[in-house]
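Input/output pair, single chain:
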Amino acid sequence: MSATPRSVLLVEDDDAIADMLRTFFERDGYRFLHALTGEEAVERLRIRPVSAILLDLNLPGIDGVETCRRIREFAKTPVIMLTARDSEVDKVLGLEMGADDYVTKPFSPRELLARVKAVLRRSEEPPAKPRIIEIAGYEIDSGKRSVSAPSGAVVDPTAKEFDLLWFLAENAGLAMSRNQILQGVWGYEYFGETRTVDVHIRQLRKKIEGIPIETVWGVGYRLGA
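Output:
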């Protein structure tokens, strides 16, 4: 009996993009689904889950950010945002709602497939033995995937923000390049979107001001030991 193929749902109102990606993903063995609106995508996902979601930011009806928020109310399926806008505000909003990554149009199907494979690989990894790392009085718990402040208050990073924080904590004191972070957290080689790292770092700094995430100019970032 053959294994069930991985499935990808594209939420995009441009049929030309959908047809191009369908050919590319099906050739690689994926089951490819297409929804024209955010409302349709949410309805379909409540009935039948998929392996990954490609979510256009600029949709008719509810936009990609609101669609992502609604999906996150009931599913942890990896989400990659597709955006034609080069505004960091749009990207930050998408990531705040729980998107795992974003790709700016125009993109190559090969790059997008690599991103999908990376988020699926990360989501399917067996959980490691739970550990707690303490940085500046904050407790980062890999088992609970939680961050506790010295006051006892619990900080609530998104799934990808937690992955990034944990990666930096495991390498505390070391300067990590953006490419190393992309490989360690997102699981793919450099495709020109190192700004993904910068956006997530900015969000982490806002949420957890007491943890010293330092910029190492010309290299990347370092979490103070």
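Residues 7-124 form a domain with the Rossmann fold fold (CATH 3.40.50.2300). The chain has a mean pLDDT of 86.
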